[in-house]
Design brief:
The structure is a single chain. With 193 residues, the chain is mainly alpha-helical. The chain is built from 8 helices and 4 strands. It has one domain. The strands form 2 sheets. The chain has a two-stranded parallel sheet. A two-stranded antiparallel ribbon has the order 3-4. It is globular. It comes from Amycolatopsis endophytica.
Length: 193
């Protein structure tokens, strides 16, 4: 537990400081959206949008905070090696759970608002790219973290699990989605992209 607090203890004060600003932003968005939508839709969409942005900021803060005493990054490119080590050496299983949970909330929220990410496969692909970018940035910035293919795989799996929960709900509630942009055709009429 001491390792968790020393590594991630900064997130609690950051979340406490950011939460009032998030609530204020949500309220402003609700007021603005109530002009064109029913109140419950305005409140729901504003909550999803603010929640997704807040979660993305916390993910970036969590993954980019330098590790105490670490000035170089290490690279683990063999898939499964870190997972086996965590199970075999009575390692910190919280790292596996943390990587599974890291992008799961975003995987659940983003499909509710972005129509292009309405399938689990598309969310998984977006999570794979985002997680790869996070791991690459950690390695380049030398924040003392381990850059691992297992982190990318676990993050992607967690986001896909989150998307599985929300994509089934979204099919019944298309009203919350942001419509895809329309492009004019040669005939001049709009066509969904």
């Amino acid at each position: 537990m001491e390792v968790l607090l020393s590594s991630f203890g900064i997130l609690l004060p950051v979340a406490v400081i950011v939460l009032p600003f998030a609530l204020f932003t949500w309220r402003l968005l609700v007021q603005r959206r109530r002009r064109t939508r029913p109140t419950w839709i305005a409140a729901s969409t504003a909550g999803i949008d603010v929640g997704a942005v807040l979660l993305a900021a916390l993910v970036l803060a969590l993954t980019m905070i330098p590790v105490a005493g670490g000035h170089t990054s290490s690279l683990h490119l063999v898939p499964g090696s870190d997972i086996v080590t965590e199970f075999a050496d009575d390692g910190a299983l919280w790292q596996i759970a943390g990587n599974l949970v890291l992008l799961a909330p975003l995987g659940a929220l983003v499909p509710l608002r972005v129509t292009r990410l309405h399938s689990v496969a598309r969310v998984a692909w977006a999570a794979f790219v985002a997680s790869g970018a996070i791991e690459l940035t950690q390695f380049v910035l030398h924040v003392g973290r381990v850059t691992s293919t297992d982190d990318v795989l676990l993050n992607t799996l967690g986001a896909a699990a989150g998307a599985t929960l929300s994509c089934g709900w979204k099919r019944d509630h298309e009203v919350l989605a942001i419509p895809a942009p329309r492009r004019p055709t040669r005939e001049g009429g709009p066509v969904r992209v």
